[in-house]
Design goal:
Elements: E1 2-6, H1 7-10, H2 24-29, E2 36-46, E3 52-62, E4 69-77, E5 81-83
Antiparallel strand pairs: 1-2, 1-5, 2-3, 3-4
Length: 84
């Protein structure tokens, strides 16, 4: 099923803002986790606490400067997934 994945929720930042001292190559070539990207949802699964997670395929992650791309699969929480 075609979906959109909010990477802000699927890959949340571990710190607030850009860290001082983070090399510019990391800031420009790191995965852009601030966008929504298309994917294919192939399954849902519950955790033992009842949370629903989606198994996603063909998720295209891009880096911040738009030059690098990685086609991958991943699990994402239900809140990060929206039907297209």
């Amino acid at each position: 099923m075609p979906v959109l994945v909010d990477l802000r929720l699927a890959l949340p930042p571990q710190s607030v803002g850009v860290r001082r001292g983070t090399p510019i190559r990391v800031r420009s070539a790191g995965i852009d986790n601030g966008e929504r990207v298309p994917a294919l949802m192939v399954a849902w699964h519950h955790t033992r606490t009842g949370d629903r997670w989606a198994h996603l395929r063909d998720v295209e992650l891009r880096n911040a400067n738009g030059r690098g791309r990685l086609l991958t699969e991943m699990w994402a929480p239900e809140a990060a997934v929206q039907l297209r």
